[in-house]
Design a protein that fits this description.
CATH architecture of the largest domain in chain B: 3-Layer(aba) Sandwich
Number of helices of chain A: 14
CATH architecture of chain A: Orthogonal Bundle
Helix content of chain A: over 70%
Largest interface: A-B, 36 and 38 residues
Structural class of chain B: alpha/beta
Order of helices and strands of chain A: HEEHHHHHHHHHHHHH
Number of strands of chain B: 10
Structural class of chain A: mainly alpha
CATH topology of chain A: MetI-like fold
Largest sheet of chain B: 5 strands, mixed
Oligomer: heterodimer
Chain lengths: 302, 410
């Protein structure tokens, strides 16, 4: 009996560090921001309970709701570009990298993976310079590509796409590596059997490889969704915290930062309640999409 | 067991040593005081440290450490520090609403009774840091000005002169452009600069200064009247003289363009004057000229003040520093060590040493001046006005539509 009890306590002891860290730095702030979304005011001493007031303000105040829906829409575009371009290229490169006939595989793997190890701020600033016609325009003209001399980040039509593609370029290595790992897990017998049956590369890919890596596709889709719905840094580095030009690159992440943390320039008075309301809605949205996606892809594949 | 003894003995010895080592430290701490000063001027560390070391000669026991944060993050960082009671003892205070909010929240001390404050500053220089009932929440420190930086070498080479009217200015730009130069370095990517330096810089030429501004603030005059439309039109007119691809030119890009002589003029604030001190060419500043028939006025903006934390552990020392800034000696020392492009606001006649700083200050002579238009009362229109200016410069909307879009939100 006594032994049993100490046994339990020991279990807890091993769990404690992670549990304490997680609750202190993840669970508590998460729950506290839920609480904060029902209050207004920045000073803890004078905070006032406003019920659903912040949510109401977010969706009924014409200026704030206009900003929210624009950021909401932009975030979806930003995510979808990642889903298609980043993950599509990820699968393509992974399939190429796992071909038996592929030479110098490690070189390509490194090239694809290296950008993910750079700081977003640095790649963001570098791309910002490269996409700026004032600095790169003459170069593009000299190599005979004058149509590339365009203020990509200053044009409302191209800014969001440009920012998304830079982010895709940077993070492409992650899905590629995961797909490579998944493809390598497929047993050789299956592929040999397919080959013997006369299946070509395309057929093997769509009928054998893709169904077998479906769980990984699902996980990556979910990760892409979660990461990009919280995106902030790339916009901060490449355009600005207002999502210039004219809020064309304003994402939920930058909107949240402006309202909840930094406040609007030049006054800079944040509204923690309104910021938390934005965060709570984002959380609910993420849950609504993530849970069904995981259920669907993980059951089928496992 | 033996090992345990050794540990115990050494622990005991350590304990004995503690009071010995702690004693002198405690003794000095009763006398010497270290204060921290928060600021958004990361560029001014050198100058501020000089100023603060001057102060140390007067108050040898007080060390003030200058701890600036990145300008766009200053308000947010300061707020976080103040909310968590880790704020600096002394700090820069923004003018008008942004500063007032922190005073009302109980973070900025009431400075009204600091000796010299109410006497040595003019009413208009006190106003930006004053509450409605006349209390002061900071000691005015420095103002900034706005104007056109121009490359004297190129002007001389091309035989061009300083324009006296806005029409002359546009003609000058046309001439420069026709001779293959980029007339203006300004861009739109960072958004704030085109509004704060250019639009608010030229606005007093069109809508007048404080006496007219209050009529706009009260709603008596409309923000889409003839004068405002003309001001937006002026912005639309200069767009063609900005660098090719100015839509994605940032504030830093503009500085580099001017500094590397790839652009001839740059409409900017006086705070940048220090950036070009090593420029390989001669440069000067002229006022943004008013259109024919109007008087050129200057946007001379009260920018920085210094205040103290209500929760500081050393209120006496902090207060003494602020009082020093209100004396003639203190203000003179401060002004000498102010970064170039920042101008003292105190009443005493103070001679600046920097050539370009004096050039900037000379623009005020015989002209009316005013703060940036929206700062005193209409700060909620900052972002809409910023977007209106950008859209008008990109040619997406007319000047009338730009003015209307701001008036609609008033």
């Amino acid at each position: 009996m006594r032994n049993h009890r100490t046994h339990h306590l020991v279990w807890l002891l091993y769990l404690a560090p992670a549990l304490i860290m997680y609750s202190l730095f993840m669970a508590y702030p998460l729950l506290d921001s839920l609480r904060l979304s029902f209050f207004t005011g920045n000073n803890p001493a004078t905070r006032v309970y406003v019920g659903f007031g912040n949510f109401e303000k977010l969706f009924t105040d014409p200026q704030i709701s206009q900003r929210y829906w624009s950021a909401f829409f932009n975030t979806w575009v930003f995510f979808l570009i990642h889903l298609v371009v980043q993950n599509g290229l990820g699968i393509l490169f992974a399939v190429m990298l796992t071909f038996d006939t592929m030479k110098a595989r490690h070189v390509y793997q490194t090239i694809i993976f290296i950008p993910t190890t750079f700081a977003v701020l640095i790649t963001g600033y570098l791309w910002k310079l490269m996409l700026n016609p004032v600095w790169s325009g003459d170069f593009f003209v000299s190599i005979g590509l004058p149509f590339l001399r365009h203020p990509w980040l200053g044009d409302t039509k191209t800014a969001l796409i440009a920012v998304s593609l830079v982010s895709c370029w940077q993070w492409l290595g992650i899905p590629t590596m995961m797909f490579v790992a998944a493809l390598r897990n497929i047993s050789v017998e299956l592929l040999e059997a397919a080959l013997l049956e006369g299946a070509g590369n395309c057929k093997t890919f769509f009928l054998i490889k893709l169904p077998l890596i479906k769980p990984v596709v699902g996980i990556i889709a979910v990760l892409t969704f979660v990461n990009n719905f919280n995106a902030f840094d790339i916009v901060f580095a490449m355009t600005n915290v207002n999502g210039a030009p004219e809020y064309a690159t304003d994402l939920i992440g930058t909107l949240f930062y402006r309202y909840g943390i930094a406040g609007q320039h030049p006054i800079g008075i944040p509204d923690a309640g309104l910021g938390s309301a934005i965060a709570v809605i984002t959380l609910l949205l993420l849950l609504c999409v993530v849970i069904p996606t995981l259920k669907k892809t993980q059951k089928g594949g496992a | 067991m033996k090992r345990l003894n050794v540990v115990l003995v050494s622990l005991a010895l350590l304990c004995l040593m503690l009071p010995i080592t702690a004693q002198p430290a405690r003794e000095t701490s009763t006398k010497a005081v270290t204060l921290t000063m928060g600021s958004w001027r990361t560029d001014d560390v050198e100058q501020m440290n000089r100023l603060l070391s001057e102060y140390k000669k007067i108050a040898p026991d007080v060390t003030i450490r200058f701890q600036p944060t990145n300008p766009p993050d200053y308000n947010a960082t300061l707020r976080l520090q103040l909310d968590s009671n880790t704020g600096p003892d002394l700090m820069y205070a923004r003018s008008y609403g942004a500063g007032l909010e922190l005073f009302n929240a109980g973070y900025f001390a009431d400075c009204t009774d600091i000796p010299g404050l109410m006497d040595n500053f003019s009413a208009s220089n006190l106003a930006p840091w004053q509450t409605a009932d006349g209390r002061m929440f900071a000691v005015p420190f420095a103002a900034v000005s706005h104007g056109v930086y121009y490359n004297k070498d190129i002007f001389r080479k091309e035989g061009l002169g300083i324009p006296n009217t806005w029409e002359d200015f546009l003609a000058l730009c046309t001439t420069l452009k026709s001779r293959g130069y980029t007339p203006l370095a300004n861009g739109l990517a960072d958004e704030w600069d085109i509004l704060e330096t250019f639009f608010f810089g030229l606005l007093p030429n069109y809508v007048g200064t404080a006496d007219q501004r209050v009529r706009y603030e009260s709603g008596e005059l409309k923000l889409n009247d003839r004068n405002f439309v003309a001001a937006y039109q002026a912005m639309a007119d200069v767009a063609q003289f900005c660098p090719r691809g100015f839509e994605s030119v940032t504030y830093n890009d503009s500085q580099v363009l001017f500094n590397s002589q790839r652009a001839v003029m740059f409409v900017d604030g006086s705070w940048t004057a220090g950036v070009y001190k090593d420029a390989s060419f001669e440069w000067g500043i002229f006022a943004i000229p008013a259109p024919k028939g109007k008087h050129t006025a200057i946007c001379f903006h009260p920018d920085m003040a210094i205040t103290m934390n209500t929760k500081t552990k050393h209120p006496e020392e902090a207060k003494a520093f602020l009082a020093w800034l209100c004396t003639e000696q203190g203000a003179t020392t401060a002004s000498k060590n102010l970064p170039s492009g920042y101008f003292p606001m105190i009443k005493f006649p103070i001679k600046l040493e920097n050539l370009h700083a004096n050039e900037f200050l000379a623009l005020n002579a015989g002209k009316e001046t005013d703060a940036r238009f929206v700062w005193p009362k209409l700060m909620h229109l900052y972002a809409p006005m910023n977007q209106a200016v950008i859209r008008v410069m990109k040619g997406q909307i007319s000047a009338q539509a730009a003015a209307d879009s701001v008036q609609a939100l008033r």
